[in-house]
Amino acid sequence: MIDLKKCCLNNGLRVIVNEDNSTPLAAVSLVYMVGSRNEDPELTGLAHLFEHLMFRGSENVPDFDDQLQLAGGENNAFTNSDITNYHLTIPAVNIETAFWLESDRMKGPNITEESLTNQKMVVLEEYRQAYLNQPYGDATLLLRPLAYKVHPYRWPTIGKEEHIKKVTLSDVKDFFRSYYAPNNCIMTIAGNVKSDDIFKLADKWFGKIKMRRVNPVSLPEEPEQNKERNLTVKRNVPANALYKAWHVCGRKEPSFFTLDLLTDILAAGESGRLHKILIREKKLFSSINSYLTGDLDPGLLIIQGRLMNGVSYEKAETELNNIIEELKNTPVPDEEMEKVKNRFEAEHIMERVNILGRVLALSQYEVLGDASLINSEIDQYRNVTPEMVKNAAAKYLKPENCSTLFYKSTGAKQL
């Protein structure tokens, strides 16, 4: 059981505290409720670009990292489709430094034409390295717009190259004013702290920042997919690859837990069905995996794998479909079900031992509606039955709900 206390400042900032006197450290997370889903389809990548800009200093702090390191801290951040998260760890005795730094950049980062140009170059290089110059790197750039036709999930978090190039200083300042407000933020702290002290510090450093009108989110609902979609590309890669994506429920829906276990049944290490059958027994794939995107709005269940040389797509798909059909028609044996549940529970416990993992998990559950839901997470997975897995497979893993990318190697024998 993870004990927590919560308060909400008058300006709308939500503050969550988990006291843990077993460590000399504290972890701090700030989640801004803005991701690539909030972007203009004609100007994508702003959320991720802004994450970079937030480290370029603020009015009173020229260099965020230097000040944090002087206090013995370290930090990182990430952006996804739904949120932007800034997190750090620091000796608990220096926790006020974190409040000073984070509150100052919430008031407004010091963004200049020079810093914007520099960070655009950094992001463009990241784009090239991660997507264009990496084998199979552009697969997600191809798969998402194949699966999504109207929802913002159709473009990558990093945005489109041509959009990043044309971002202006005015665009960036408008984006900050639209989303970086205390009433659009969740602050979570875990470690050797006292809740009352944290609430006082939060009010001291953040309480005078005025709430602002946050741009309302009104996203187009992705239409139900009723027909298979296929795309074939050729690339200079070592082996043919196969990517399949099915539309599934959003992260807040109860079926998410069932689908998450379903992907573990398929691909939880070497004991997963995909590895056991398609790699070890039939030797059709050299690697294969299955996972959920875990988005707030209805996301995707993805299976991706690289074929062994000389294996045809027809053979690979047939055997993969056989595994899926078995999930639809035959309940998972109790022993196999218990194994994936035990695996999840062990990983869950290990992640929560670390204060940074715990603070990120608490933040995630507050995004979903209530941080205290973290204490019922194991039960949610434990309550999944073989029949629920069978029904979920039948409901979602239908051919007409699937988008398939055939990623062909120019050097492999084409079958």
What does this structure look like?
- The mean pLDDT is 95.
- Helix 1 (46-53) crosses helix 4 (113-132), helix 3 runs parallel beside helix 8 and helix 9 (255-267) packs across helix 15.
- It is built from 15 helices and eleven strands.
- It has two domains: 5-206, Cytochrome Bc1 Complex, Chain A, domain 1; 229-409, Cytochrome Bc1 Complex, Chain A, domain 1 (2-Layer Sandwich).
- With 415 residues, the protein is α+β, with helices and mostly antiparallel strands.
- The strands form two sheets. A six-stranded mixed β-sheet has the order 1-2-6-3-5-4, with helices on both faces. It has a five-stranded mixed β-sheet with strand order 7-11-8-10-9.
- Helix content is 42%, strand content 19%.
Biggest beta sheet attributes: 6 strands, mixed
- Share of β-strand residues: 15-25%
Number of domains: 2
CATH architecture annotation name of the largest domain: 2-Layer Sandwich
The arrangement of helices and strands along the chain is EEEHHEEHHHHHEHEEHHEEHHHHHE
Helices, by number, come to: 15
The separation of the N and C termini measures: 54 Å
Radius of gyration: 23 Å
What is the CATH level 1 assignment of the largest domain? Alpha Beta
Average pLDDT: 95
Instruction: Provide the spatial order of strands within the biggest beta sheet.
Output: 1-2-6-3-5-4
Helix content: 40-55%
Could you tell me the number of beta strands? 11
Alpha-beta classification: alpha+beta
Q: CATH topology of the largest domain, anyone? A: Cytochrome Bc1 Complex, Chain A, domain 1
Structural features:
415 residues; 6-stranded mixed β-sheet; 42% helix
